[in-house]
Amino acid sequence: MGAIVREEVGVTIEHLFSCFFFWPMHLISCFRTGFLGAISLGLNFCISGFIIWTAVEGP
């Protein structure tokens, strides 16, 4: 479990470093990736929340 978390953090830090140090080429794609990631994460939360709500509340 700890190894997975450490790996995730390492990848995130690596990604941030590449965003900051290679910004001329990567800044747009970094922001776009982060933006799309945030949107898809939000949509996933909305959809799963809606499914759970309908399952609990009923139609």
Task: Indicate the topology.
Layout: H1 2-21, H2 23-57
Transmembrane segments: 35-56
Keywords: Membrane, Transmembrane, Transmembrane helix
What does this structure look like?
Keywords: Membrane, Transmembrane, Transmembrane helix. With 59 residues, the chain is mainly α. α1 crosses α2. It has one domain. It starts with a helix and ends with a helix. The longest helix is centred in the last third of the chain and has 35 residues. It is built from 2 helices and no strands.
Summarize the structure.
The chain has 59 residues and is mainly α.
Query: Could you tell me the radius of gyration in angstroms?
Result: 17 Å
- Largest β-sheet summary: none
Query: How many β-strand runs?
Result: 0
Structural class by helix and strand composition? mainly alpha
Count of domains: 1
Helix fraction bin: over 70%
Tell me, briefly, the overall form.
elongated
What is the CA–CA distance across the termini?
Answer: 39 Å
Keywords: Membrane, Transmembrane, Transmembrane helix
Throw out a few tags for this protein.
single chain, 2 helices, mainly alpha, 59 residues
